Amino acid sequence: MSIHINAAFDGGNIRPIAIDGDRVDLEIATDHASDFYQWFHFRVAGAKGRTVTFRILNAGGSAYPFGWPGYAPRWSTDRETWRTTPADYADGVLSFTRTIDSDIVWFAYFAPYSMERHHDLVTRIAALPGVRHRELGTTLDGQPIDCLTIGDGPKQVWLYARQHPGETMAEWWMEGALEKLTDLADAPAMLLRAKATIHLVPNMNPDGSRRGHLRTNAAGVNLNREWHSPTPDKSPEVLAVRNAMDESGVAFAIDVHGDEAIPANFLAGFEGIPSWTDAQGGKFYRYARELAEATPDFQLDLGYEKAAPGKANLSMSTNQLAERFGAVSMTLEMPFKDHDANADAEFAWSPARCKTLAHACLDTLAGMIDEI
């Protein structure tokens, strides 16, 4: 029976190059109108009972090739449970071998979060008591930009995810956040609903998500370099969300992402903004410290270098919101690898752990909401 490779589905990305016996050679397609690529998601049929080696031949030219060493692809036979499979990276090629015992098996860079699941999530949460839904605008492909608002307190909190569509862990985190915030028996959620108005945008980049992009929207634009001057023709997603933020104001914000190389969860702040004050920055540092105390799935030692004074990139949302609103804003990065300080050999960093981390993030916010 012949082996069949297919990625023609929501969020799919791979290009078959050659199939030679039990060896399958592949390439990842670039984002439309962009040189970015690294996200892959494909299914394999016709390989049951065979031990197959998959080789991604163009891994060395990807956006972040330094992320491949130590990385393990995810695989699933039911599209619900995603486990890791060992991989090797050498001479620009990522290779992994599996004995396949099912008619169909799926592989992905990280556990996928489809646009269909996104719509299920938004519909389910919007129907719950105390939740308000708004469509902030539409994307270049005509998809809705969904915002769910919970609570009626004076502090304006914005949580938004998946500016980079291949960073699917970000929407798993949002699913966990939404479930917690709508739990009427959850004490920290009750406190937040009373003291804050929380606006959540589960997916900032629906077009890139559906197209199987790593980092850009339908125009090939990196949305997290558009926050200083978004436009309707290049970045309507950012324009719609930033306009809504201008209407409400922003006291606290988390932009949720994934990182290819660093095997840890960490926060990046807004050091280097022109209006930096130690009081504003101190609230960010306190939040990070308290989050690290709250969960073993967060740490303070690994992360990005801080910008020098006055050198912050204001096209990035975290810096723009801190400068624009005086907000305590931050970027949460989760790994494609694992949180090595609290590792899981079978699942690595996983959807379930993304959701649990969201709970810890909200618990931490509840503990200091009065000071934000």
Provide an overview of this structure:
It contains eight helices and 17 strands. With 372 residues, it is α+β, with helices and mostly antiparallel strands. The chain folds into two domains: 4-108, Immunoglobulin-like; 115-371, Zn peptidases (Aminopeptidase). Strands 11-12-14-13-15-17-16 form a seven-stranded mixed β-sheet, sandwiched between helices. A five-stranded antiparallel β-sheet has the order 1-4-10-6-7, with no helix packed on it. It has a five-stranded mixed β-sheet with strand order 2-3-5-9-8, with no helix packed on it. α2 (169-181) crosses α8 (351-368), α3 (187-195) crosses α8 (351-368) and α6 (278-294) crosses α8 (351-368). The chain is globular, with a radius of gyration of 20 Å.
Secondary structure category: alpha+beta
Got a strand count?
A: 17
Large-scale geometry: globular
Second rung of CATH, namely the architecture of the largest domain = 3-Layer(aba) Sandwich
How many domains, as an integer? 2
What's the CATH H-level superfamily name of the largest domain? Zn peptidases
Radius of gyration: 20 Å
How many helices does DSSP assign?
Answer: 8
Strand order of the largest sheet: 11-12-14-13-15-17-16
Helix content: 25-40%
Task: Outline the low-pLDDT stretches.
Answer: none
Largest sheet: 7 strands, mixed
Which CATH class of the largest domain applies here?
Answer: Alpha Beta
The fold-level CATH name of the largest domain is Aminopeptidase
N-to-C series of helices and strands: EEEEEEEEEEHEEEHHEHHEEHHEH
Mean pLDDT, rounded to whole units? 98
The end-to-end span amounts to 61 Å
Residue fraction in strands: 15-25%
